[in-house]
Amino acid sequence: MTALLELDDLSVTYRIAAGEVPAVRGVSLSLDSGAALGVAGESGSGKSTLAMALLRLLPRDARVGGRILLDGEDVLTMKWGRLRAVRWAEASIVFQGAQHGLNPVQRIGDQIAEPLLVHDLVKPDGARKRVAELLEQVGLPTWRAGSYPHELSGGQRQRVMIAMALACSPRLIVADEPTTALDVMVQAQVLTLIKQLIAEHGISLIMISHDLSVLADVCDRLAIMYAGRVVENGPSREVFHDARHPYGRALAAAFPTVGDPASRLAPRGLGGDPPDPMRLPTGCSFHPRCPVALAECSTLDVELWPAGEARSAACVHVRAKEEIS
Amino acid sequence: MTETRAAGGEPRAPEDAPPAAEGDVRVPEDAPPDAETATTEPTRRGTLLEARDVHVEFPSRGRRARAVDGVNLAIGEGEIVALVGESGCGKTTLARTLLGLERPTSGSVVYGGAPLDYGSRSLKAHRREVQLVLQDPTGSLNPRHTVYEAVAEGPRIHGLPDEQEVVATALAKAGLRPPERFFLRYPHELSGGQRQRVVIAGALALNPKVLVADEPVASLDASVRGEILALMLGLRDDLGLSALVVTHDLGLAWNIADRVAVMYLGRIVESGPVEQVLTAPRHPYTQALLSVLPESPERVVLTGEPPDPTRIPGGCRFHARCQVLASGRAAEAGVDGRCRSEPLAVLPAVSGAQVACHYAEVTS
Asked: Does ipTM surpass 0.85 in this model?
């Protein structure tokens, strides 16, 4: 299968008054056509920066290195006109916090029609029909086209955002925490919708979240980020149930399975705090919080290492195990 | 058997007097509020904080929103109760009412056996005993106050002596050690988890008996979440603190709560020990909530959003979204007519498992 998207040693550094902030430090990932990839990590891990970098939506003070190949074409070297054509039409983004992503004084239908008209995909009179079609796809009644965002609930607004992302029939959708602010039941509705859309339209998906259980549910593969790097990568069920990196294990345990006696009255967390990207620890950046750190971890920076079939993890324990076997 | 609308349509209950609420379907435990009968329930550890047939209504666009529509809920000494439900179900309003921040339209809040008095002096005393921990630590801390000032605010208002020692002890209890190192820090210098610890320290500074925590970890990172929950569990074990945790996260209830109450559209529809309710839920709504958790085998995704508290449906308030009714199972059991027309009784404040569902009543 050919990769629709390939990140090759992607790095993003923000230059701020106090110095340089390395937010993404050499990430290589690939996404097959029609597949869904989950990117997990906590705030400051660089996961949202990564999402924004995919379509060159980062602020000016960000310096981006490496390559982002979308269908073999490097997004980072695209001419402005080509980039505009690619945004929405080939890849679109669903942001978190649907209430801020919509214009409060414009009707829903007009907002969904905007990318269609900008990209000359429909004539103004055809737009109405396409908008109705899109609303139907995301499970909203077509009369909602005439509503304003404040007349909708949070879940409905998130559906509108998804309709906008679908408008130009892109091949890739990047969803940044699409369900974070939503209630459990509404979250389930939106996730069901996303799963159904990627299955029916063959759209590829990159979904970003701090909730491993949600990602494992929707995505085929999971990449776990810590301090700007991917520390674990593999098929989502396996990563979720049997992470090889200690950070992956901590993240998976943070969301307990109801009914699992091991987590009953025993919340599990991880001591310490995420590192300050301007003052990253030496060696493995996870070692100060790592429950299984060895002496060498404070000096040795371990790269991603094979950890089973189609899996990799950046941990000295994984490397030791693989070297023995 | 019909539930009277009297309580709902009544004007505001006279101050301080327990409402008569005559005609409401009541179970014996929930006899008309009377301070002396409060602790006579045999099966529970001493009740500390209790809502008795609480109704809270708000005007909403010319109508009345029944945010809390008849709730009995008791929190025992050293007990952690999780109040679970979707946004708009009234769980936050109920929590605010227990704190004395909202005044019930009818019904009463009972603390330590005595009904809450809404005079300003007794409210101040109540809020010292029952402390609030909010969801977003960034929003609940003043960015221009140091950690010391943030934690000292409560003790100053209540005129506690030995302020510095009180602050240091509270910070240490909240896991910020050594406390002196944090005195002069500002919120922006702390991580999200540390900020939430400062908020909890602010609550602990007054030596409360009960913490009311509204989504205490919803805005925190996954890895920090467990640490804050472990802190709350530790406070219960070490200090005997009770807690009401308001959340939409059933995993959180599983992690720390002894008992869970599931709220839907202003009412508690199922409650009981966490193990029982979350592993063998009886109310279709609880079943649906559990079924959408990522690990569960078969999903029941309810359509629509929770209905409007200004238009609570007749019959069982959940019937319009109920999957058991929609699938015909209720009809098979011969209760579909009752689901649509017969309101359910308000559940009493007992600690055993109970459910307000016609179908569950006839099938179990």
From this structure: no
Residue ranges of chain B with pLDDT lower than 50?
1-43
Check CB contact under 8 Å for B86 and A183: yes
Other CB atoms closer than 10 Å to residue A34's CB: what's the count?
16
Going by DSSP bridges, is the β-strand pair A305-306/A62-70 parallel, antiparallel, or unpaired?
A: unpaired
Cβ distance of B87 and A183 shorter than 8 Å: yes
Q: Which residues pair with A229 in a beta bridge?
A: A226
Rounded distance between C-alpha atoms, residue B147 and residue B152, angstroms: 8
The C-alpha of A87 sits at a distance from chain B's nearest C-alpha, in angstroms, of: 30
What is the token pair recorded at A72? 């073999």
Which chain B residues contact residue A159 at CB under 8 A?
A: none
Q: Mean pLDDT lowest for which of A12-21, A94-103, A263-272, B31-40?
A: B31-40
Distance from CA of A255 to the nearest CA of B (A): 7
Contact flag B279-A43 (C-beta cutoff 8 Å): no
CB B245 within 8 A of CB B253: yes
3-state secondary structure of A316: helix
Q: Which of A217, A254, A273 is nearest residue B226 as measured by Cβ atoms?
A: A254
Which of A265, A279, A289 is most worth mutating to test chain B (most B CB atoms within 10 A of its CB)?
A265
Positive or negative: CA dihedral A212, A215, A220, A222: negative
The set of residues, in sequence order, having a beta carbon less than 8 Å from that of B277 and lying 6+ positions away, is: B260, B262, B270, B271, B286, B353
| C-alpha dist (Å) from residue B360 to A93, B329, B342 | 44, 11, 14
Return the exposure string of A163-199: e unless at least 16 CB atoms fall within 10 Å of the residue's CB, then b. bbbbbbebbbbbbbbbbbbbbbbbbbbbbebbeebbe
Which residues of chain B lie closer than 8 angstroms to A210, CB-CB?
Answer: 221-222
What is this structure's pTM? 0.84
pLDDT digits (tens, 9 = 90+) for A65-88: 999 999 999 999 999 999 988 988
Regarding beta strands A3-16 and A62-70, do their DSSP bridges make them parallel or antiparallel, or are they unpaired?
antiparallel
Contact predicate A290/A317, CB 8 Å: no
Alpha helices in B265-313 (DSSP H): 274-279, 284-291
pLDDT at residue A98 in the model: 57
Q: Which of A265, A274, A289 sits opposite B233 (nearest CB)?
A: A265
φ and ψ of A81, to 5 deg = -65, -40
Mean pLDDT value of segment A282-304: 93
CA-to-CA separations, B56 to A188, B82, B108, in angstroms, rounded = 30, 20, 10
Of the candidates A184, A255, A214, the one whose C-alpha atom is nearest the C-alpha of residue B252 is A255
Beta bridge pairs of residue B106: B55
Contacts of A267 in chain B (CB under 8 A): 225-227, 229-230, 233, 255-256
Nearest residue to B94 via CA among B46, B49, B47: B49
Label residue B104 exposed, middle or buried (CB < 10 Å: 0-12, 13-18, 19+). Answer: buried
Distance of CA A255 to the CA centre of its chain: 18
CA distance A320 to A125: 64
B334 to B283, B325, B330, B345, B364: CA distances (angstroms): 17, 10, 6, 19, 14
Closest CA to A184 of B294, B140, B358, B240: B294
Residues of B whose CB is below 8 A from A183: 86-87, 248
Residue B284 DSSP SS3: helix
**Within 13 A of B14's CA, how many CA atoms are on the CB side?**
4
DSSP assignment of B189-245, as one string?
GS-HHHHHHHHHHHHHTT--SEEEEESTTTTS-HHHHHHHHHHHHHHHHHH--EEEE
Residue A156: its chain B contacts at CB < 8 A? 305
From chain B, pick out residues whose CB is under 8 angstroms from the CB of A251: 222-223
